[in-house]
Structures are given as C-alpha cells and as structure tokens.
Design goal:
Helix content is about 40%, strand content about 15%. It has helices at about 10, 20-35, 35-40, 55, 60-65, 105-120, 135-145, 160-170, 185-190, 205-215, 240-250, 270-275, 315, 325-335, 345-350, 350-360, 380-390, 420-435, and strands at about 75-80, 85, 90-95, 150-155, 175-180, 195-200, 220-225, 250-255, 280-285, 295-300, 370-375, 395-400, 410-415.
C-alpha cells in the first residue's frame, strides 16, 4: 500500500483557524488530487465503443490507489480477536460484523474441523440433488426450535436468501413496500421479481402509510424491512410496521441479518425485542454476522417456506451450499449464542463508546446497536481520514456513493465482544486526534 500524499501536512497542523474553514480548505486541496464526483459517479466519456468501453474509461480506483487512499480489498494476514495484521501492520479492527466474537471461537473451530474430517471440503452439488447432508437438516431443526418457527431453510448466503425468497414471493400483480435503506440483496430480489416495488423514506411510517393507501386495492402486499440497518445502525420501527400491515392487509418480511445475536431474548433478534415474533410472516437471516460463518437462512411460520420450490428459486436449488465446515460450525454455535445475556453483551457493557463520539462532536445514533457510523460527508475527505486512521492503528470500514447518497460518505465502525476498554480508548483517541486535525470536529 502506497503512502498517502503529504500535500496537506502543513495545513493540517495550522492552529487557531476555525474548524469549518480548515475543513473546506482541506477538501479543496483533496479535490485537486482526486475529484470523486467526476471520476467515480460520472466516469469520463471515451471514444471507444462496445460494451467493455466503460471499463477502460473508469479511473477512480487507480487514482485513489495512487494517492494511497483506496480502502477496499485490504488483505488481512492474521486475526486475533479484534486485532488484525494488514501489510505487516497491526491494527484494531472496527470493520467487522463478528459481534459475538464467534468466528474464531475455539469451540466453533473444533466443530467445523470435525465436519471437515467427516464430509470433506465441499458438497459437490445443490441442495436439491446430492448436496443436502444431515448437518443441513440438523441446523434447520435447531434454528426452527430456537426461533419457534415451523420451518426453516438454510441457503448458500444471506444475499441469496433475500434475493431468492423475494423473487419467489413477489408475483406479477403484487406490490412490495421497501425501506430505502434496506440491504442491496432485498433490492436485487425486488428487481428480478415480476411484481412492483415502491420505496418509502427511511423509517418514515407516514410515507409507508401513504403508499399502503395508494395501493390499498392490491391484494398481494408485503412490507420488507431490515431489522437493523447495516449502514446507519438504526432499528426498524417494527411495532408501527406491524400495525400498518394489519390495517392495510399486508404481510411483513424482516431481514434479521444484524439483529440475530444482538437484540432480543437470548439474541433472537429485533422482533423478539418488541415481542412481535408471532406477527412477522417471513424472516431472513445470515450466518456471516453474529454467528461468525457464512450462509443464509429463510424461516417462516406455517408452511410459508413452500414458496422455495425448484420452479421458483433457481438460485437455491441450482447452487451448492457452503462447505460442510461452515454449516457444522454454525450449528456448533447453538450452545454459545443462545446463552442468556450473550446476545446483548455489547449494548450492556459499552454504551460509553457512543457517548465518547457524541462528546467529540460526531452525530451518532443513540441506541445499543454495535454499528456506529461516523458521517464525514465529502467522499475524498472520508477516504483520506480512513487512511490516516489505518496509519494510526485503526482499521475501519468506509462507505461512499452509491452505497450511501452522494456527499453523505461515512466511516462505518462496528464493535464486538472482543474489544476491551484499551481497544476502545485507542479508537476514540484516534478519531479525536484526526477529526481535529482535518477540521471535521472542533478542538
């Protein structure tokens, strides 16, 4: 990884100038080096024709790499809890969804090792044909029992669980009502389905009701929402959504990807937290967050899982599931994640972290969710600060357009049971130092 440019060194260290003026000057200097809006959002036109021409006219990644501020595809060489090694450098990772620290838990690793010895490294076929092992069935029974669902289907990925399920459900005459901040997999599913999708403003129940009234004559209606939104860390207003669904004759589908293991009784999710489990028709979940593995899960009450049928969900029936160790490792998590109190460990022990960011001048969400986005705004400035954080020993995620709206770029931080007081003090200290240095927050 190349070093970031040093053009700003003198300006960064100026004292006495108001932070907003300092920030504006730094952004202006950055844009002379890397104009994100022009090079990323509007790639330059070139004379070459053909479907591949756009590939040769897109230079934003190379420009960011030359400046040393490209934040993606960093190769992690070693992991020890929340500590990682990248390019030979040790850093505290606040860029993981391993909320309960289970991905490297010795008991989970041992369960996965046993499956590797018994079944090998792959399933060599789809679930529909030869790729269903007894460990898949065992895991499905465990999840159904834990969540009090009649039926469960495990899939290759969480993305596939959303995409395949919605594509099956949303018929030509049906309408889906989707929160604007829902995960991309939800919109992919809506996009390939023959039905209509309308997007309501984020967590705006008045806007949702407006659309429900508009399409009140449609018989097939479903409201789809993340339980916890992956970028903002906001919690869906499930009580209001359930009430509106009843008032207007709609069904409800909830994506608990970031809710399982984080909220609710024994980590059962946001629907459990609100005591609305019996009011939700269809759930989706993933094993790649709190459960520390890979795979997706679709679970429902009654026989609603029957919609996943060969003629409806090609992605499920004609794709192999993840290797056996992943499913066995997830099944092995059962006795760990379901221990009372573990699912809410983060929120109960580390609320001071958000208070620390707030006191600095960053606007953060006021809830117990371990996702803490730090909004910077201008994309190039966000990429630059993210690189400076890494140089200071903090490995964070970064979200720029089109993942978030233009000029709403953020450094997305998330925290796990592996972070201790020393780790979090270091993270807060780095954000305070660099936020002040770049004029993002006042001294």
């Amino acid at each position: 990884m190349t070093k970031p440019f040093t053009l700003l060194s003198e300006l960064e260290n100026e004292d006495g100038e108001p932070s907003h003026l300092k920030k504006s000057k730094i952004i202006s200097l950055l844009k002379k080096k890397f104009d994100f809006e022009n090079s990323h959002l509007r790639p330059p036109n070139i004379k070459d024709k053909g479907i591949l021409a756009k590939c040769f006219g897109y230079f934003a990644p190379e420009q960011a790499k030359e400046l040393g501020i490209y934040p993606y595809f960093r190769a992690i060489e070693a992991i020890d809890g929340c500590h990682v090694v990248i390019d030979g450098k040790s850093a505290i990772s606040v860029s993981t969804n391993n909320y309960l620290g289970l991905a490297q838990d010795p008991r989970v690793v041992e369960a996965a090792r046993d499956a590797l010895e018994k079944f090998g490294i792959g399933c060599t076929g789809s679930r529909f044909l030869n790729g269903t092992f007894d460990l898949h069935k065992t895991l499905e029974r465990e999840i159904s029992s834990f969540l009090n669902r009649e039926d469960t289907i495990v899939m290759s990925t969480g993305f596939q669980a959303n995409q395949g399920t919605i594509a099956c459900l949303l018929g030509r005459k049906d309408v889906a009502f989707s929160d604007r901040e829902n995960h991309a997999s939800i919109y992919e599913g809506c996009g390939v389905a023959p039905g209509k999708t309308v997007r309501y403003q984020h967590n705006d129940m008045d806007h949702l009701e407006y659309y429900l009234k508009k399409y009140s004559d449609v018989e097939g209606k479903i409201i789809i929402t993340d339980s916890i939104f992956s970028m903002s860390g906001d919690i869906a207003n499930l009580p209001a959504i359930v009430k509106l669904a009843k008032d207007y004759g709609a069904n409800v589908m909830v994506d608990e990807a970031h809710g399982l293991g984080v909220m609710g009784e024994n980590g059962k999710g946001v629907a459990s937290y609100y005591n609305l489990e019996d009011e939700i028709d269809i759930y989706m979940g993933t094993f790649s967050k709190s459960l520390g593995s890979i795979g997706g899960v679709f679970f429902a009450k009654g026989q609603n899982t029957r919609v996943i049928h060969p003629k409806n969900s090609g992605g499920f029936f004609f794709s192999p599931p993840p290797p056996p160790p992943h499913f066995r490792g997830t099944s092995g998590v059962g006795g760990l994640v379901y221990v009372p109190g573990r699912g809410v460990k983060w929120g109960g022990e580390k609320p001071f972290l958000k208070r620390g960011f707030f006191d600095m001048g960053f606007q953060v969400n006021n809830n117990s969710i371990p996702i803490v986005p730090i909004k910077i705004g201008e994309e190039a400035l966000t990429l630059y600060m993210n690189r400076l954080l890494f140089d200071d020993g903090v490995f964070a995620g970064v979200a720029v357009s089109p993942v978030v709206p233009p000029l709403n770029a953020m450094i997305r931080t998330s925290y796990t049971s592996s972070h201790d007081q020393k780790d979090l003090d270091k993270v807060l200290g780095s954000f305070r130092k660099l936020g002040t240095k770049l004029g993002i927050i006042p001294k």
